[in-house]
Amino acid sequence: MLATAYCRKAASGLARTARRLAGILACVPLALCAAQPALPLATDLAADAQRMRAQRLPMVVLYSQTDCSYCEQARIYLVPMSRSTPASALFRQVDLDSDAALVDFAGRRTSHREVARSQKVGFTPTVVVYDAAGRELGERIVGMRLPDFYGQYIDNAIEAARTTLGAAP
Predict the structure, then answer these.
(1) How many angstroms separate the CA atoms of 39 and 42, rounded?
(2) Which among 19, 104, 126, 165 is placed 20 to 30 Å from 3, CA to CA?
(3) Is residue 77 within 8 Å of 136, Cβ to Cβ?
(4) CB-based contacts of 113, cutoff 8 Å, min separation 6
């Protein structure tokens, strides 16, 4: 009888612990989703261009799409760069599969999807560096080639663009 009572008490304690653990684990995916790094979405490239001209900054655009795991990897490199001070470039994201409103460099109202199409971006992730007129500066970084060097590719592209724009190092 004593053993049965002990087993019931242990089982009820275990059940409580299991429920608590299940509750904690249920929150983990939410925390991971909230922690996903994000770049500012492009909304008004013409307005961004004014800042770029004033500060002699290039713009780094990540062309991304939903459920692109390589795009998530690219953001791991790009988000910290976008938050550095002083800013070495403006960083924006354009989503190939989004119809979100966007003003292009020329001031025309369009969408993310249309800008990606007009720039002939069909593969993600693609990183393009632009000047304030919307001209590409240097080569595109397409795909997630050699992840160990990805950050260096981006740094090199930004530095080359800054040199072209005559920006201070």
Answers:
(1) 9
(2) 19
(3) no
(4) 95, 96, 97, 98, 99
Task: Name the residue among 134, 161, 128 with its Cα closest to residue 49.
Answer: 134
32 within 8 A of 64, measured Cβ to Cβ? no
Q: Which of 78, 80, 59, 71 is nearest to 132 (CA)?
A: 59
Q: Is 51 helix (H, G, I), strand (E, B) or coil?
A: helix
Preceding omega of 86 cis (within 30 degrees of 0): yes
Digit-coded pLDDT (tens) for 35-92: 567 899 999 999 999 999 999 999 999 999 999 999 999 999 999 999 988 889 999 9
Contacts of 81 (CB under 8 A, 6+ apart): 60, 88, 89, 91, 151, 154, 155, 158
Name the nearest CA neighbour of 58 among 133, 124, 140. 133
Q: Which two tokens stand for residue 23?
A: 């509750």
Q: Residue 136: phi, psi to the nearest 5?
A: -70, 135
